[in-house]
Design brief:
Helix content is 30%, strand content 24%. The chain has 279 residues and is an alpha/beta fold.
Amino acid sequence: MSAEPVLEVRHLNSYYQQGRTLFGQKGKHRQVLHDISFSIAQGEIVGLVGESGCGKTTLSRTLLGMIHDYDGEIIHHSERPQMVFQDPYSSLNPSKTIGWILEEPLRIQGKLSAPERKAAVIRMLERVGLGAEYAARKPHELSGGQRQRVSIASAVITRPRLVIADEPVSALDVTIQAQILRLLVDLKQEYDLSYLFISHDLNVVYRLHHPLYGGGRPGRPGAGHERGCHRGAEHGGRTLRPPAAPLYPTASGSCGMTEILAEGPSPRVEEGPFHFTAP
């Protein structure tokens, strides 16, 4: 029996108003997302791959209600889905301590007393690889990787069922990327999370798990997926097929997958569990 969905998207179209004319009239109404349909099951990781400017962040913001100019259906089967942003520094309040930042979602949730919230913050800091001493620090006192760990902790501390990760490792160096991806996988397994993982880098998605959709123009991932390769008129791109087996590299470096891309050769796999090179 398949897992129940935490998110269903049906025929989603999203739009932007492009400024105003010289005489104050509304500018052109531009469609950014085109007839997108997909679902995410409980405990599933869905990777969305596309080049910069193709609408990935627009999709994530539309799903979370930050963009209201859309039509189609967005059905959340979970409460308060969370987001991990590309730039953790811009998503963390620079005037507050890390402890305050992590406690704020718990205050909003309203289920724990003040002592319980503080204890939960310490546990979460330790869980993401930071110590209790980080609770008194501010974002500018942390490195980029440490700030991203705080951002992830803030997203999962309320135990959501769905987390949308928008380019969470693109600003980090390769070594820190591997650590953050490992942390995301561990948290997913521990808390039974579902991820919509957004990236422009196929290598990163290969490292994580289950690359399902990819593309240039945001068209219909489901339809492009069935046809094998979908090329958009504006941006071009390739649609990924579902893997024959989960992407869990073994110690020998074999990932147990063939023909991940709908066209072109399979990715080259270098020695080691977390080193992949796109063709």
